[in-house]
Design brief:
This protein has two helices and three strands, in the order H-E-E-E-H. By secondary structure, it is α+β, with helices and mostly antiparallel strands. The protein has two domains: 1-78, Ribosomal protein S19/S15 (30s Ribosomal Protein S19, Chain A, 2-Layer Sandwich); 79-109. A hairpin with a 4-residue loop joins strand 2 and strand 3 (56-60). The longest helix has 24 residues, at 85-108. The mean pLDDT is 90.
């Protein structure tokens, strides 16, 4: 469920205090653990280090991501490829085919 319009968007007050009256160039990366905080228009241009449970991932705030939450841009789970030895062999063959195709294209030009 979305947050009530009566309450307004949730933005961590500590984050707003950190950027209040400052320019993005003056501050470096602003570390935060507040993944549930929404991105407001005042944050555009700043770089936040959003904690993912292990380390801080840098997120540059642009106009496109205003309204989203900070946690959306800091994944907490690392994807491990499916497949094992057989999958690696298939990927290697595919890479070799791409390389030979690129060499053939260069030779024809």
């Amino acid at each position: 469920m979305t947050r009530s319009l009566k309450k307004g968007p949730y933005v961590d007050e500590r984050l707003l205090k950190k950027i209040e009256g400052k320019k993005p160039e003056d501050l470096g990366v602003i570390k935060t653990w507040s993944r549930s905080s929404q991105i407001s228009p005042e944050m555009v241009g700043f770089t936040f280090g959003v904690h993912n449970g292990k380390n801080h991932i840098e997120v540059l705030i642009t106009e496109d991501i205003v309204g989203h939450r900070l946690g959306e841009f800091s994944p907490t789970k690392k994807f491990v490829k499916h497949g094992g030895k057989m999958q690696k062999e298939l990927e290697q063959k595919k890479k070799e085919a791409e390389v030979t195709a690129a060499k053939a294209a260069k030779a024809s030009v």
